[in-house]
Design a protein that fits this description.
heterodimer; A: 317 residues; mainly alpha; B: 355 residues; alpha+beta; Rossmann fold; OB fold (Dihydrolipoamide Acetyltransferase, E2P); 2 domains; six-stranded mixed sheet; 35% strand; elongated; ATP-binding (chain B); ATP hydrolysis activity (chain B); ATP binding (chain B); AAA+_ATPase (chain B); OB_MalK-like (chain B)
């Protein structure tokens, strides 16, 4: 049918004006289909990112237009020990929380992939920490780790294991452990469910073949499950690292960066300097300083994904 | 190489019994095909042999060893799966060498055996490729290579050709048979395709609803099916069945639908008036003046032969002729079954009545 229509339409089109021709142009139409998505990305991602980077080169304060000051904000930060502490905290927080989220998430995924009673219900339950609003769970943890009313301290005291309350959020080491714990609790479901989805794409006959080939359960995991899961692990862990690195809500609701800045992450420090203290330029510089770290994390997973030759199409080289 | 004995094996999933006491003796070096329609239990039986399913009751032995409670990896068997189950993240060489690697064989040993298997299957140039980069037939060969490398007591094949296109299936069929003639390893092969069973097997086991209907060489099954199920299952186009009664008035005849008279060589003793099913293969019809009147419905030439669908006494039958008759739909012809090649089955039980 299409073959018949084309020659007939041709003479008519040459008489049409430019506007009608444009209306029939597929690229022009395609452009308009793209506009909403483009507008969305420009207004909500590119513009704020550009503005943030620009602000970091100015001395803008809340209520006052700033002037371009070059890298002065960064020079200040370079000599700011609190900034460096927040960098250390962020790296520690990200590294420990992500590693544990991966380990626990993988373990849970393997467990949920087994045949067991109430499988569907258990899978749904794992998602609960993920669906509770972050601030709500942070408030709950705040109570759990309260210096006076902590249920943990209370239980341990009644068991006779300790004599006085543990100062969970008042002690620097404890505070770090607590926020990392809360982050893990929230982040595990995402890792577990995504890895479970990955596990379910592995054909059961591969395990049967490996079992006949003489593989033990551990060897099944080591030589079949793990290598087949690596692409998904790379994606999940990239997201997990990005989310953890830029975490703000949980810390702000639980500790506001305290005690003595021990849990200040770059995101919370940036908020404190920019919004609370009004130094928008300096806050923006702290935020912008996160970009190289995030890019590095993305690069690692990018190259991790690139290597898997066996996934690539049916080319013959 | 080893013999395999399957003795009164039953299998239940929960309360549902899928195998009702199956006994199959398999001799050393034999190529046995388990064939039957979907759900007959043939794949389950194979998986029990491999150790992938538990045996509810009965025994399976490989060689002189009962393997009911032996781990799959200690049974010394190799299996080729329907979807090949190649490890997608390993090269062809790694796929084939995986079982040896797990047994801590040395790199030289693995290399040598993989090379040898690759040579047998002409996989040499493909050893460094990944399964994704292979065609269906090549993957099939890699799956066989993986089995050969292990040099097992028994090869198990679970519908290995059903994912291939028709032409390749015929080629691989020959290749597998040739491989068996060369290696002489005991082989158990599961398929639902009776042509595969006929062409490849030393012994066919026809299964249906969890029981063995008949065992024998391909031609035994073709020439003397024990019952109506086997008669209908083996052979293509399928055997024609006509219901009616045996008549013995001096000479034995068969009274088919609407009183059509069909020839019988002999009738079973005291069977006058007995309801029965008359079976005749499409290739055992001839055109003769004393044949039954038939009206042609459809003519399907295939080149080497012509299939003629016709109605005898209102019942449709198919006849196959190597000669090129000029038939048209609506023509009346006289079809005569060759009396010595006619099968007679009990109407109620389907059991074979004539010798």
């Amino acid at each position: 049918m299409a073959d018949v229509a084309i020659p007939r339409a041709k003479p008519q089109m040459s008489e049409d004006n430019a506007w009608t021709r444009l209306k029939h142009n597929r690229n022009w139409l395609g452009f308009w289909f793209m506009v909403p998505a483009m507008a969305f990305l420009i207004f909500f991602l590119a513009y704020p990112l550009g503005l943030g980077i620009w602000l970091s080169f100015t001395d803008t304060r809340i209520g006052r237009v700033g002037h371009f000051v070059g890298v002065e904000n960064y020079e200040w930060l370079w000599d700011d020990s609190i900034f460096w502490l927040s960098v250390f905290n962020t790296l520690l927080y990200t590294f420990v929380a992500s590693a544990l989220k991966f380990a626990i998430g993988l373990y849970l995924a393997l467990l949920l992939n087994e045949n067991m009673p109430f499988k569907a219900m258990l899978r749904a339950m794992v998602l609960i920490p993920f669906i509770v609003p972050t601030v709500l769970s942070a408030l709950a943890f705040w109570w759990i780790f309260d210096s006076q009313f902590s249920i943990i301290s209370w239980s341990l005291k009644h068991l006779g294991l300790i004599n006085q309350n543990i100062n969970f959020l008042g002690d620097t080491t404890w505070a770090r452990i607590c926020v990392i714990f809360a982050n893990i609790w929230r982040g595990v479901p995402f890792v577990a469910i995504t890895l479970l989805a990955g596990l379910q794409t592995v054909s059961p006959s591969l395990y049967e073949a490996a079992t006949l080939d003489g593989a033990t359960r551990w060897q099944n995991f080591r030589f079949i499950t793990y290598p087949l899961l690596t692409p998904i692990i790379a994606v999940v862990m990239t997201f997990s690292v990005l989310f953890t690195f830029t975490d703000f809500q949980l810390i702000w609701a639980m500790t506001r960066g305290g005690p003595v800045n021990a849990t200040h992450l770059m995101a919370t420090l940036s908020y404190q300097r920019a919004i609370i203290a009004g130094q928008l330029g300096e806050g923006a510089a702290i935020s912008s300083a996160m970009i190289p770290f995030l890019l590095a994390a993305i690069m690692v997973s990018w190259f991790g994904l690139q290597r898997r030759k066996w996934q690539q199409g049916e080319n013959n080289d | 190489m080893s013999s395999v004995q399957i003795r009164d094996v039953r299998k239940s999933f929960g309360n549902f019994e899928v195998l009702h006491g199956v006994t199959v003796p398999i001799e050393d070096g034999q190529f046995v095909v388990l064939v039957g329609p979907s759900g007959c239990g043939k794949s389950t039986l194979l998986r029990m042999l491999a150790g992938l399913e538990n045996i509810t009751s009965g025994t399976i032995s490989i060689g002189d060893r009962v393997v009911n409670n032996v781990q799959p990896k200690e049974r010394d068997i190799a299996m080729v799966f329907q979807n090949y189950a190649l490890y997608p993240h390993m090269t062809v060489a790694d796929n084939m060498g995986f079982s040896l690697k797990l047994r801590n064989a040395g790199a030289d040993e693995i290399n040598k055996r993989v090379k040898r298997a690759a040579e047998i299957l002409a996989l040499g140039p493909l050893l460094d490729r990944y399964p994704r980069q292979l065609s269906g037939g090549q993957r099939q060969r890699v799956a066989m290579g993986r089995a050969i490398v292990r040099d097992p007591q028994v090869f198990l094949f679970d519908e290995p050709l059903s994912n291939l296109d028709a032409k390749l299936r015929v080629a691989m069929r020959t290749e597998i048979k040739e491989l068996h003639q060369r290696l002489k390893t005991t082989t158990v092969y599961v398929t639902h395709d009776q042509i595969e069973a006929m062409t490849m097997a030393d012994k066919i086991v026809v299964m249906h609803d969890g029981i063995v209907e008949q065992m024998g060489t391909p031609l035994e099954l073709y020439d003397k099916p024990d019952n109506q199920f086997v008669a209908g299952f083996i052979g293509s186009p399928a055997m024609n069945f006509l219901k009616g009664h045996v008549r013995v008035n001096g000479v034995a005849t068969f009274e088919g639908p609407n009183g059509v008279k069909l020839p019988l060589k002999t009738a079973p003793a005291a069977s006058d008036g007995r309801p029965a099913v008359y079976g005749v293969r499409p290739e055992h019809f001839t055109i003769a003046d004393d044949g039954a009147e038939a009206e042609i419905v459809v003519v399907e030439p295939t080149g080497s032969e012509t299939q003629v669908f016709a109605k005898i006494g209102g019942e449709q039958v198919v006849a196959v002729f190597r000669e090129r008759h000029q038939f048209n739909p609506g023509d009346k012809i006289r079809l005569k079954p060759e009396p010595s090649l006619v099968h007679l089955f009990d109407d109620a039980t389907g059991k074979r009545l004539n010798a």
